[in-house]
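Suppose a classmate hands you a notebook page containing two proteins, each written out with its sequence and a corresponding row of structure tokens. How would you begin to make sense of it? This section walks through that situation. The first entry is reproduced here exactly as it would appear on such a page.
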Amino acid sequence: MRFAILSALFALAAANPLPRSSSGCFTVSQFRNSGSPHSISASVSFSVKDAATALSASCFASLSIQPSVVTTQFPTTCNDTTVFFGVEYNPGVPGYYLTLAHVYNDNKTVDAGSVWLGSDIKRFDNPSGNPNGDYDYLNYPSDFTVGYNRHTQA
């Protein structure tokens, strides 16, 4: 009797497996979020890689309303349409946040993470003396990592 009950429970558990989670790391390089000299636009751009999944993508967004730096809502698509990002300002914990997600395996696996970029806006003063060449930029390293959690839906 006990064997029959245990067998039924194991069969049920195998039929409805729980989602699994693990963690990893995105590698971001060439990150830049700034205005543009002699322009009223700003852009954010970077490359993202993940050795665990052979991911390699380039991400870009721009605004032409003379912002100091770019904010773009998640999910903004990168050149690889399985990769999404967002750069958003959070006044509650003052600063900018970068969110990244990679969706793959027929939408059954999502690697997602975010990092606080701070709120240190600096001004680049054009050495030529032309004030139209000045622009603001988010002072953050160009190369860094973003830890992620992996969620796999069976």
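The notebook's second entry, a different protein, reads as follows.
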Amino acid sequence: MALMVKCVFSMPLVGLQKFINSVFKLAQLPLSCSHYS
């Protein structure tokens, strides 16, 4: 899923991780995105 979002928004992986974590936080989901470094 993360790589599909990366392709759609043309984001670097660090920005993608922060974006997905903020979406999870806004949706009040107890999830976090994997660390890609």
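A careful reader of the second entry would note: The chain is about 60% helix and 0% strand.
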